[in-house]
Design goal:
Its cofactor is Mg(2+). The two termini are 23 Å apart. This protein has 201 residues and is of the alpha/beta class. Bound molecules: guanosine-5'-triphosphate (GTP).
Length: 201
Amino acid sequence: MSMEDYDHLFKIVLIGNAGVGKTCLVRRFTQGLFPPGQGATIGVDFMIKTVEINGEKVKLQIWDTAGQERFRSITQSYYRSANALILTYDITCEDSFRCLPEWLREIEQYANSKVVTVLVGNKIDLTEKREVLRERAEEFAEAQGMLYLETSAKESDNVEKLFLDLACRLICEAKQNSLVNNVTSPMPGEGKNISYLNCCS
Ligand SMILES: Nc1nc2c(ncn2[C@@H]2O[C@H](COP(=O)(O)OP(=O)(O)OP(=O)(O)O)[C@@H](O)[C@H]2O)c(=O)[nH]1
């Protein structure tokens, strides 16, 4: 164990349209609750949760950004140092899915090229209101080299899995990078082909 009270520290930033459920996902994971009447996020919010994975303490710094356009210049400044981005849309809102290419341009422009991005379709408890088919989202995510997961912050579906699998993936990448750096300098894109689900089975 290091001097600090953790073995790994990762910064995760949630982005996506207003109202898709970013704050609710963070509150569900960090506090185990679904807040009633959650108001819109103003600027950026910050929470910490430490988890243990395979005996290692992982401190997750989770940044919840406002989806509203008027906060975009503030939220963009948080991309750069992110280890992972959770790009969220609402499966009951076609519009939030259609905006994804716009979000990808933001990522391209402001995030680190090594950032791990997960696409999340939230609100799967609202089955009858679904507007975006899972297959369509999966295809989109794959084409863009993103991981994909569907969640419900309300019913706590896949929320733990989202953050824990992501933490696992980040640990794998960190270990691989230090290994690669010790042996030879990495080629661009090297070390990016670890399967999201396989690294922590
Ligand atoms: N049914 C259902 N409603 C949800 C879920 N997650 C969030 N909501 C609702 O969606 C609305 C918006 O949730 P927020 O978490 O504030 O959304 P946000 O993406 O953080 O919004 P901004 O802060 O404006 O960017 C709220 O009324 C939530 O109660 C979910 O999984 N299921």
